[in-house]
Write a structure and sequence with these properties.
Helix content: 40-55%
Largest sheet: 2 strands, parallel
Order of helices and strands: HHEHHHHE
Strand order of the largest sheet: 1-2
Shape: globular
Radius of gyration: 18 Å
Length: about 140
């Protein structure tokens, strides 16, 4: 009995994660073949059920800078963590600047915009040191 392509792909992902190494995997296929659907609906649930990895997906559509990609990764991580508590922490973080604009008193103590936009690529240091499976989607649309 032959394994399905889906089973083979999940097996390959599992093998890669067990290696405990940094790096990247690339899932290829023709446009519209269901790669994103597969990741969101098959691979991510399987990974979170069978490993100690947290999965996040970040669209690179229209992105031009490393710092904006880093922000998207952080916000996606915070959204994922917040969803477990039924709270969108990433959305809160995204709106901190609006909050500081609405309440000028906050600006006396913290420059939220500088913290978020000025951190650049170093924003990755704000991510905890846990196992993350980060999927960059829409790579061809950057």
């Amino acid at each position: 009995m032959h394994k399905s392509k889906m089973d083979q792909t999940l097996e390959s992902i599992d093998s890669y994660l067990r290696m405990k190494t940094g790096g990247a995997l690339m899932l290829t296929g023709t446009w519209g073949s269901g790669k994103t659907y597969f990741l969101k609906n098959e691979a991510f649930p399987w990974i979170e059920k069978n490993t100690d990895y947290l999965t996040i997906m970040v669209s690179l559509y229209g992105e031009k800078s490393k710092s904006s990609i880093a922000q998207k990764v952080l916000f996606s991580y915070l959204d994922k963590r917040g969803s477990k508590a039924k709270l969108s922490v990433g959305t809160i973080a995204k709106n901190l600047k609006n909050l500081s604009d609405s309440i000028p008193y906050i600006k006396q103590f913290v420059d939220i915009e500088k913290i978020i936009s000025g951190a650049g690529e170093n924003i990755f240091h704000l991510l905890p040191k846990e196992n993350l499976f980060i999927c960059f989607d829409d790579l061809e649309r950057m």
